[in-house]
tRNA glutamyl-Q(34) synthetase GluQRS
Amino acid sequence: MPLTTRFAPSPTGRLHLGHVVSALYGRALAGSDGRFLLRVEDTDRIRCRPAYGAALLKDLTWLGLRPAGAVRVQSAHLSQYEAVLRNLQARHLLYPCSCTRREISARSTVTAPDGSRVYPGTCRNRNSHPPGRPLAWRLNMQAALEEIRGEPEWQEIGRLAGPGRQRGQAAAFGDIVLGRRDSGVAYHLCVTHDDALQGVSCVTRGMDLLHATSVQRVLQVLMGWPEPVYAHHALLLDAEGRKLSKREGAEGIFQLRQAGWSAHEVLAHPLVRKTLEVSLP
């Protein structure tokens, strides 16, 4: 059956070679019979910039990476994500949290599978909060797992993670934030909602997001959304073996264009080619 994949960057900087890997990987798995979609994940009001979103679309067009159908821009659909939050609130699966990052860091003693600090549950049974302090909304993970009767699995078809059924570790993440105090909605909620809405049947992304699948599968089961298959690709690394990042000055597509690179040369860049070779099934 043909697959529907998506490339879903956040406009927090210019497109770089790591993005090219992700886009090519998704397009390759969709194949000529499938659908390759583009989604702009710009709900982070602090880090995302409209100018980066416009530049992202321009660079993708120059590279010839054109999606099937209209581009979905998450910031234009906040009411849909807020409706999911209200659904979970009505089911008593969320609770308000007034803890600051400093407070969480001071109290947390456990690390999640992705390296983040696990929330210690300070506000889980709190009846009041400091006046004037903004609230986030956290998923009561234990209650959620009890409702869906345990950890969901997922089907991995990627070469690196080991194809086959994978068992989730959502409990190890603790009570994650689904409603941010700044933007109102969080990544896990938005991405799982949109994958279901857009009919994404194969989620393609980097290995740095492998562990996030556990949490997103919980949300899919809670909301009755379809279960896609997953394919995680290798990360594009620099000479020292570190992940290339736009925050650390990774080679940007714009800079390569300015240096005289053609679109074909960028798509065939040795780092891009090498990363795809070890990733594609």
User: Anything to note?
Assistant: The two ends are 16 Å apart (CA to CA). The chain has a mean pLDDT of 94. The domain at 4-277 is CATH 3.40.50.620 (Rossmann fold). The longest helix spans residues 17-30.
